[in-house]
Amino acid sequence: MDMLKIAFIGVIGVILAIQFKGTKSEYGIYIGLATSLIILFCIADKLSIVIDAINKIQGYIQLNTVYLTTLAKIIGITYIAEFASGICKDAGYSAIAGQIEVFAKISVMALSMPVLIALLETIDSFLS
């Protein structure tokens, strides 16, 4: 049912943005941004379910919390970057959108380096 609500909000937002884009193009961008923010807040509400599931998984499997925290940060970075990039592309600033995407990719790579190093150390300990 929530998916129907989000789809309805998205379609209505697009229809309103298209309607205003003909006369005042900046209003179309504002409506698109407002619609995106409404959907973002709905997604943030669902994040508590994901966080609870991750905590439950951590209870079953004794994982280092650093790995789960890193995973959560990576998911957050990718979603925020995709959101900001999409807004920039809709506004016609694809160069800025591309830079946001590149920064997000480098940030994800930097965050994942400690996990990669730990994996390589584990493999090395098995081989020696």
* SS strand fraction: under 5%
Backbone shape = elongated
For the record, the count of structural domains works out to 2
Determine Rg (CA atoms, Å). 20 Å
Residue runs with pLDDT of under 50 for 5 or more positions: none
Secondary structure: number of strands: 0
Mean pLDDT: 87
Organism: Candidatus Galacturonatibacter soehngenii
Protein name: Stage III sporulation protein AD
Transmembrane segments: 27-44, 65-82, 102-120
Keywords: Membrane, Transmembrane, Transmembrane helix
Describe it for me?
Keywords: Membrane, Transmembrane, Transmembrane helix. InterPro entries: Spore_III_AC/AD. It comes from Candidatus Galacturonatibacter soehngenii. This is Stage III sporulation protein AD. This protein folds into two domains: 1-61; 63-128. It starts with a helix and ends with a helix. The chain is elongated. It is mostly helical and 128 residues long. It is 91% helix and 0% strand. The model has no long low-confidence stretch (mean pLDDT 87).
Q: What topology does this entry show?
A:
Layout: H1 2-21, H2 25-60, H3 65-91, H4 94-127
Helix pairs in contact: 1-2, 2-3, 3-4
Keywords: Membrane, Transmembrane, Transmembrane helix
Protein name: Stage III sporulation protein AD
Pfam family, one: SpoIIIAC
Please tag this protein with its features.
128 residues, 4 helices, 91% helix
